[in-house]
């Protein structure tokens, strides 16, 4: 059963935003819910198991997720000591107004139609900066629209520093087709060189388009696909982790572990054990 959280029932209609921290011990959960307002949260400490729109993942420290109204999700403390989430929620009309003023061309964050909400991994420095901005916001006795705008601008400035220049709204058909072909395990190990061959363009043009559309380098894009494939193999096959790493195209097992933990918040072994515990 799912709850629907409504702004006017939870707080005064005059309240412009709410920032809060919530710690969940291992196994402690916040129940399944959706809401009539947008929010963004990040894991400031520990590990959380997050289910959103029917998909469950482990979120490690520094993972940030934009939750749209009607995204249905819940949290469960995971890892060794559970996790702490910082949540920033605001009135829907105020976000719409802020978008008109500052983010009219933005196609990420809350403003997309994908099935899953957008998530990004913050670096240690980015997480410290965001935590500091959140603490400053929480120290104010009464939040104003100007306070909300300032926090949003700081957040998007932080993300813009780590991402690409303005992304284009749609992916060219040739790039989408190349990425689909690359998902074939026989081709995935070929990495960026294979993606260039499948795209049928120069490495330089591929790099420019990947950066424009996805905000990452071709290497980052390929590694993300490799790690997604590896996650499926870990969950549904009995292959050794070293074999999965090699099949995905990672020559170094330690590098595979490093990238996997950065993307999924846990080691490959922990991911396998916890994914199987859910089935």
From TrEMBL:
<dbReference type="Pfam" id="PF07883">
    <property type="entry name" value="Cupin_2"/>
</dbReference>
<protein>
    <submittedName>
        <fullName>Transcriptional regulator, AraC family</fullName>
    </submittedName>
</protein>
<feature type="domain" description="HTH araC/xylS-type">
    <location>
        <begin position="192"/>
        <end position="274"/>
    </location>
</feature>
<keyword id="KW-0010">Activator</keyword>
<keyword id="KW-0805">Transcription regulation</keyword>
<dbReference type="GO" id="GO:0043565">
    <property type="term" value="F:sequence-specific DNA binding"/>
</dbReference>
<dbReference type="InterPro" id="IPR020449">
    <property type="entry name" value="Tscrpt_reg_AraC-type_HTH"/>
</dbReference>
<dbReference type="InterPro" id="IPR013096">
    <property type="entry name" value="Cupin_2"/>
</dbReference>
<dbReference type="InterPro" id="IPR018060">
    <property type="entry name" value="HTH_AraC"/>
</dbReference>
<dbReference type="GO" id="GO:0003700">
    <property type="term" value="F:DNA-binding transcription factor activity"/>
</dbReference>
<keyword id="KW-0238">DNA-binding</keyword>
<dbReference type="InterPro" id="IPR018062">
    <property type="entry name" value="HTH_AraC-typ_CS"/>
</dbReference>
<dbReference type="InterPro" id="IPR037923">
    <property type="entry name" value="HTH-like"/>
</dbReference>
<dbReference type="InterPro" id="IPR050204">
    <property type="entry name" value="AraC_XylS_family_regulators"/>
</dbReference>
<dbReference type="InterPro" id="IPR009057">
    <property type="entry name" value="Homeodomain-like_sf"/>
</dbReference>
<dbReference type="Pfam" id="PF12833">
    <property type="entry name" value="HTH_18"/>
</dbReference>
<dbReference type="InterPro" id="IPR014710">
    <property type="entry name" value="RmlC-like_jellyroll"/>
</dbReference>
<keyword id="KW-0804">Transcription</keyword>
């Amino acid at each position: 059963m799912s709850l629907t959280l409504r702004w006017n029932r939870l707080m005064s209609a005059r309240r412009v935003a709410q920032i809060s921290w919530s710690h969940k011990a291992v196994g402690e959960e916040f129940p399944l819910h959706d809401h009539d307002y947008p929010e963004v949260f990040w894991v400031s400490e520990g590990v959380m198991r997050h289910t959103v729109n029917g998909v469950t993942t482990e979120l490690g420290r520094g993972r940030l997720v934009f939750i749209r109204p009607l995204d249905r999700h819940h949290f469960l403390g995971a890892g060794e000591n559970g996790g702490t989430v910082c949540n920033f929620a605001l009135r829907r009309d105020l976000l719409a107004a802020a978008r008109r003023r500052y983010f009219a061309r933005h196609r990420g964050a809350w403003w997309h139609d994908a099935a899953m909400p957008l998530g990004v991994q913050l670096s240690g420095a980015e997480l410290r900066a965001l935590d500091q901005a959140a603490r400053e916001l929480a120290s104010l006795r009464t939040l104003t629209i100007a306070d909300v705008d300032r926090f949003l601008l700081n957040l998007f400035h932080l993300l813009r520093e780590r991402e690409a220049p303005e992304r284009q709204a749609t992916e060219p058909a040739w790039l989408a087709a190349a990425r689909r072909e690359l998902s074939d395990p026989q081709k995935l190990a070929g990495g960026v060189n294979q993606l260039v061959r499948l795209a049928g363009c120069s490495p330089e043009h591929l790099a420019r388009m990947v950066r424009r559309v996805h905000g990452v380098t071709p290497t980052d894009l390929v590694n993300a696909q490799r790690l997604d494939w590896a996650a499926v193999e870990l969950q549904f096959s009995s292959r050794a982790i070293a074999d999965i790493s090699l099949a995905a195209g990672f020559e170094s097992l330690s590098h595979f572990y490093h990238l996997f933990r950065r993307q999924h918040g846990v080691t490959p072994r922990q991911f396998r054990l916890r994914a199987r515990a859910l089935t």
